[in-house]
Records
---
Amino acid sequence: EPEVTQTPSHQVTQMGQEVILRCVPISNHLYFYWYRQILGQKVEFLVSFYNNEISEKSEIFDDQFSVERPDGSNFTLKIRSTKLEDSAMYFCASSEAGAGNGYTFGSGTRLTVV
Amino acid sequence: GEDVEQSLFLSVREGDSSVINCTYTDSSSTYLYWYKQEPGAGLQLLTYIFSNMDMKQDQRLTVLLNKKDKHLSLRIADTQTGDSAIYFCAESISGGYNKLIFGAGTRLAVHP
């Protein structure tokens, strides 16, 4: 069964450093998403991406965040200057056509900012 | 506003049925989903229901939707220890690019 692949599975970074979280969505999917889950809290929407541009973003997704699809397969989330409160599990997801048969989520990247 | 609420914890005996409940606020929801999260793992789609349906059954899983009350439930028949996990209810909001709004998750504990 096709999978969404995320790397790394766990990243530790110092406060103020830049991090790039990587995702390989399912190849025929058109919509891409990033969500995050702070430990013990809800899964929160960050951003959706379609047709090579951001289609929607949440209040969390401020100027410190950016997304990119640098080639035909990867989808990245960059945090420019990490803060302690950015520590969370970050999930990438993709879908073929928005809603409907659901999104496929990756296994997540646990980001720890120290 | 968009909000999804779930009870936080449910404990059941192995072999019994589990019922996990969820309420949502946005009447424009198009699809409603149940995701399962095992410890340290990602979000696994269990099942979903379109908003014009009342019920959907998929093997041991039954989803009931009361659109009038904005209430969604997931029934797991013959609950097994492998069903122990956190179950998230989520709604897909129409009009955008179908972002998902998640509940806080219900931790299901199955004991012998």
Note: Chain B touches chain A through 24 residues (CB under 8 Å).
---
Amino acid sequence: ETGVTQTPRHLVMGMTNKKSLKCEQHLGHNAMYWYKQSAKKPLELMFVYSLEERVENNSVPSRFSPECPNSSHLFLHLHTLQPEDSALYLCASSPNGQGEETQYFGPGTRLLVL
Amino acid sequence: RKEVEQDPGPFNVPEGATVAFNCTYSNSASQSFFWYRQDCRKEPKLLMSVYSSGNEDGRFTAQLNRASQYISLLIRDSKLSDSATYLCVVGRSNYQLIWGAGTKLIIKP
């Protein structure tokens, strides 16, 4: 299944590094999401974009910086991360961001911060 | 209190048995309800939406009880391939889905 793709699949970075996560959706959706999933915790919504405009930002530290250049692509820029930021970062999309819509997820980027 | 609560399990169930999970939510204004399934080291995928009238999809039945603010998932004739974590999800408003931490199910031969 290639509806939502994410790269890289795995990433190890030091606390002083800068890296970016990429997400691309091929479903023609208008809404895209970044989630963080830590072990044994619920998915935490980080950012939501609708038609390339950020519509939600759930108190995420500024060391995470999203970018949505068009409705098919979403980036998450990372800098000066902390070890507690190690987690699975999931990208998702949905048709229009309505609450009753199914969200389609990418495979995730498993991030380890040393 | 968490907005969406689930028993983390694991539920260890023999193949062929029936198993049921509940999930409670705290916001009475919640409008949409879902069960997602997440396999080990994979992304979540929609299992089924949950409607007020209840709905069934093959061996899976979902029910919503608005008065008591819980949703349930029933799996009949469980298969080894049903082993996964089942995530309860509640839609609070546009863009906002609130996720439970999941119930782990292990089906044993």
Note: Chain B is about 0% helix and 60% strand.
---
Amino acid sequence: DAGITQSPRHKVTETGTPVTLRCHQTENHRYMYWYRQDPGHGLRLIHYSYGVKDTDKGEVSDGYSVSRSKTEDFLLTLESATSSQTSVYFCAISEGSSYEQYFGPGTRLTVT
Amino acid sequence: AQKVTQAQTEISVVEKEDVTLDCVYETRDTTYYLFWYKQPPSGELVFLIRRNSFDEQNEISGRYSWNFQKSTSSFNFTITASQVVDSAVYFCARGSSGGYNKLIFGAGTRLAVHP
């Protein structure tokens, strides 16, 4: 199994509060991704990173920011959480741009 | 947007039946990659297969087989002699060569295999 952990695994927060989700890998892979999973939508890409300090937006990036200061860590921040951001968040890593992605266990976030 | 369509939302079969999950994709890329992932009730996402657009050979892995047809933009997944452990949500996804392999996922097909 690819060494990917996500923290926290579950979080309940109130509307308007900031939230940071962490993805940590031990594989030294260059590419990291954040997706959200919602019923009827499959997984949708929020942001991705192709190296330290190199990040870009995905399909559903509004309301989210990311940072990658080290190869092993990719942080996803909700600056001011809204109920529409209640979802399951998955981090993924990939060895290269044409390779399969391996996913972390997911974080279930509930915004009340 | 270039979509991935999994038209079957839910499929229910009895154990030992064969079942095919459909996946149709859209792309303007010459080179692209197709994937299948499994999400069992425990929630993790398990990688099953990756297929390059320039390799149209079908693939078989045990009870699993995949049929890639570029002419119809389809990448279908067949489980032979299904088992209860195959019950899961299955996702088809497409990535592209020049776009950091950002994946576009289908909405998923929930497969229920009954004893």
Note: DSSP finds no helices and twelve strands in chain B.
---
Amino acid sequence: AQSVTQLGSHVSVSEGALVLLRCNYSSSVPPYLFWYVQYPNQGLQLLLKYTRGATLVKGINGFEAEFKKSETSFHLTKPSAHMSDAAEYFCAVMGFYNQGGKLIFGQGTELSVKP
Amino acid sequence: NAGVTQTPKFQVLKTGQSMTLQCAQDMNHEYMSWYRQDPGMGLRLIHYSVGAGITDQGEVPNGYNVSRSTTEDFPLRLLSAAPSQTSVYFCASSYSGVQETQYFGPGTRLLVL
């Protein structure tokens, strides 16, 4: 069975500091991986996704993530945090043989950005 | 395009009442899904559909029914609401294909007393 673990339910960084949000997955075959962001009282918005090919994936708002098969990880990074990055971030996995667009989500990481 | 729309935005129910959460998309997406979001648990799949007339259960289907009579609409029915169904509900849609991006609606916040 597939699963996703996000390390740290809350992460706090200072404005301008590196953002690192951790995600590890469990899957029998390399899956498709996604990062979504949720701003307060809004739905989820796709940040980036890994669907084979290049293992370093660039997304919107300066975020990027690297797929590391050997570590079963897909950590999200941003070199310099901005106040507007404060939100909840979800890592999600979709199996290679998945039907129906079924995403398995991690529990989420709330990012706070201090001035 | 309006994208994925959900109604209502907020609803309060009493235990045992029934209601339907509406979801519609105007992107001609084949796949549609319902998730519930609870603190510390991320989003969990309730039901999904791969096309009109085809639905299947997700991770937490108990207490919920769905049907898909058209490509555009995918309503979620609570037959007899329970306090455990207090949650935020999100509808999502995508083109077919495992790597396709899912687009989420703004959510419906449900409180069951």
Note: Residues 35 and 47 of chain A are 5 Å apart (CA to CA).
